[in-house]
Amino acid sequence: MTSSVTRRLVPVAAAALVLLSACGGTDDDADAKKSAKASATPSATAAPIDRDQIACKSLTAADRAKLAGSVVDEIVAATGADGSSQCRWQSDKALIQVTTLPAKQWAKSLPAIVKQLESSGELKAGQDKKDLDAAKKLLAGADKFTDKQACDAFVTLAELGGEKKGTTTTVTTVPISQTESGISAQTCSAGTLTSIIYSVPGLKETKKIDRTVQQVLASAHKRVTRKG
After folding, report:
1. Which end of the chain is more exposed for a tag (fewer CB within 10 A), N or C?
2. 3 state DSSP class of 64
3. Dihedral of alpha carbons 197, 199, 205, 211, sign
């Protein structure tokens, strides 16, 4: 499966992602920083922050510093998809978000993502359409998948996208704001899907960064499934 299909199906459906502009701007761009800070501040109607939820306990301070290269300890409001646990940390230079949910809940979102891709007109003719057809066939009945079936589908989608056979983790670049990108990594095993998204100014995906985010994700996922 080509990246244009798989790289949307796997990360986009992992959670309801609220992408902030917190990582936009530079040290000389004070207005951008102020705007980012304001966007990170919970409004009067925002849901209260639950620091005891599993997602907030999935990353240590050392994990977050390893990703961002600096201290990122402030938790800000975040709203995940139904049935999920989502936690977001933010500083003036970094955004880190963890989402975890039962794999079958993730799978329920996939048919809608496929439909959106199909109607978007953004996919190229030929192989993209064949890949989309393969995804539709794979995900038939996804709303009734068990957690195991959902993780099996995750693996198959990753394999069709060019990952090694049996892989349970994917990493890709995602847009965070008009000027900044982030790294999105997901893993699915033990009936649970865990996702990490993080961004710092000027972030570019490299093999070293991929290894780092996979190591941090593995630690987070282990903590989640151990307590699940």
Report:
1. C
2. helix
3. negative
CA distance 155 to 83: 22
Q: Is the dihedral of CA 147, 151, 152, 157 positive or negative?
A: positive
User: Residue 189 and residue 148: Cα distance in Å, rounded?
Assistant: 8
Rg (CA), the chain: 17
pLDDT at 151: 94
CA distance 103 to 107: 6
Neighbours of 40 (CB within 10 A): 18
Contact 65, 210 (CB under 8 A): no
Residue 204 buriedness (CB in 10 A; 0-12 / 13-18 / 19+): exposed
Spell out, as residue ranges, where the chain has pLDDT lower than 50: 1-3, 14-45
Considering only CA atoms, which of 150, 135, 26 is closest in space to residue 83? 150
Orientation angle between helical segments 127-138 and 147-160, nearest 10 degrees: 170
Distance CA 226, CA 228 (A): 6
pLDDT value at residue 122 = 64
d(CA 18, CA 68): 19
**d(C-alpha 69, C-alpha 81), whole Å:** 29
Q: Which pairs from 125-134 meet CB under 8 Å and 24+ separation?
A: 127/2, 128/2, 128/4, 128/5, 131/1, 131/2, 131/5, 131/6, 131/160, 132/5, 134/1, 134/160
Q: Record the tokens describing residue 209, joined without a space.
A: 């960064």
